[in-house]
Amino acid sequence: MPKILTPNDVLQFRQRLCDLALKAFAEQGVEGMSLRGLAAAAGCSRTTPYRYFKNKADILAAVRQTQFQRMADENEAAALKEDDPDKRLTALARSYVSFAMANPDAYRVMFSVNQQDEQRYPELVKQIKRAQQPMKTAVNEALAKGTLHGDPANIVHILWAGLHGIVSLHLSDKLHLGRGIDELAEVMIRSLSRAVAAKPSKQASTRRVRED
Amino acid sequence: MPKILTPNDVLQFRQRLCDLALKAFAEQGVEGMSLRGLAAAAGCSRTTPYRYFKNKADILAAVRQTQFQRMADENEAAALKEDDPDKRLTALARSYVSFAMANPDAYRVMFSVNQQDEQRYPELVKQIKRAQQPMKTAVNEALAKGTLHGDPANIVHILWAGLHGIVSLHLSDKLHLGRGIDELAEVMIRSLSRAVAAKPSKQASTRRVRED
DNA sequence: ATTTATTAATTGACAACGTCAATTGACGCC
DNA sequence: GGCGTCAATTGACGTTGTCAATTAATAAAT
User: Which nucleotide is nearest to A10 (CA to C1')?
Assistant: First the structure.
């Protein structure tokens, strides 16, 4: 128990708590992730975490932020590996599914925990946006190149929704598929590519998507 | 306090509790839906609900079952209104989105509350399957008619995932769209139709989907 | 080196929760 | 009227999130 906590100490303990929290979440869900349990697992007293987080919602937000950050990292890395915008879109889609399948609990805590006042955590919001950015950019580039047509925001939403739908239903066991999810994910990716590559029927076409 | 509870009384009270539970869920989320709060709202003592439900998870399952039942009803009704399989598919997709938009809290309790042992509630499982059935049937009919091609299970999953993705992301405020969600939903429905109507590249084609 | 001030960590306490056991209350029946 | 049965209430226990008060430990000051 050093007297003065260096900022590094603080970050380290916060990270440790977040890791324990994610593990607890993975094993017993949101309800099983109790502050007292976390403190016990961390080997400190019940209220010590309150020096590092305001309350339970704060810890949850930090956990989610961390995982969004990891996802953003992977997405950015995946985007760098492909030069062609179309291939990049496919790669990003695969990266999205891969991340979810490799870290199902992370994905659950990111998307299926409905944090009511999510907007009040600017760092969390920031990482969420960062995770979407590569896809937005790739869509804009494909639009510029002319291999995609339609409203950019719509396209991004369609892509994301399709991927999230597959992953999310799978993770909550709503699809009982014999063969693994990879094949289905590939079908979805192909479907989305085709759907999004087709010329639109009657919508505003090439407005640029906001990139803030 | 009548001495003997008629089965009707039991059903009535259960329904009343479920309604109160959904309202509590809508206002304060899963955590705010407390047994003691429900009892207070129902005007009875804390443990009276235990005569009608085994525990809290049981109540949650009952609430979800009720809402899946309503969705199944609407889906079946929507299916009846269209004769052509393709139009029926579109109508079912619209029905899906309409239900979610008209009953956002119902949708949330149905899909974003991750009930761990969902399989242990056969009545719930039954209503979930019933809610999917119209879409399965319509897909099979479109396949038979020849306007769709591909693996039936895949198609159903793709459709459902696309719709669920849109609705689910929207309900958790992950899409910040200026115009309402109806337009985006229409785009998604058109995209899915096109994606699913296209001839498949190299997959097993016309196996029938399981309808159990 | 001893005191003092600062800050980390612990303990105590409280309300709310889920749930079980024991109790009370009300009604049909003999 | 008394009795058995079943609905409903109350009591109680352990657990949770969180705040206030307390203790402990160390950097700074004298």
Answer: C8
Query: What's the Å distance between residue A165 CA and nucleotide D16 C1'?
Result: 34
pLDDT per position as a tens digit, B3-57: 677 778 889 999 999 999 999 999 999 999 999 999 999 999 999 999 999 999 9
CA distance B174 to A139: 18
Select from A112, A115, A103, A118 the least CA-distant residue to A169.
Answer: A112
What is the rounded average pLDDT for all residues in chain A?
Answer: 91
User: Given phi > 0 = left and psi -120 to 50 = alpha, else beta, which region is A184?
Assistant: alpha
Q: B204, exposed or middle or buried, with CB in 10 Å at 0-12, 13-18, 19+?
A: exposed
For B22, the 3-state DSSP assignment is helix
Of residues A69, A81, A88, A99, the one with CA closest to residue A136: A88
Residue found under tokens 């709202």 = B41
pLDDT of residue B8: 80
Q: Which of B116, B154, B165 sits opposite A162 (nearest CB)?
A: B165
Mutation target vs A (from B115, B164, B179; most A CBs, 10 A cutoff): B164
For residue range B64-95, what is the model confidence (pLDDT) as tens digits?
999 999 999 999 999 999 999 999 999 999 99
Does residue A203 sit at the B interface (CB-CB below 8 Å)? yes
In this complex, the residue of A112, A169, A194 whose CB is nearest that of residue B161 is A169
Q: Quote the CA–CA distance of A188 and B202 in Å, as a whole number.
A: 14
Contact B191 A192 (CB under 8 A): yes
Torsion of CA A67, A68, A70, A72, to 10 degrees: 170
Per-residue model confidence (pLDDT) at position B9: 80
Q: A117, A55, A165: which is closest to A38 by C-alpha? A: A55
pTM: 0.91
Q: Is the pLDDT of residue B204 over 70?
A: no
CB A134 within 8 A of CB A76: yes
> What distance, in Å, lies between the first and last C-alpha atoms of chain A?
43
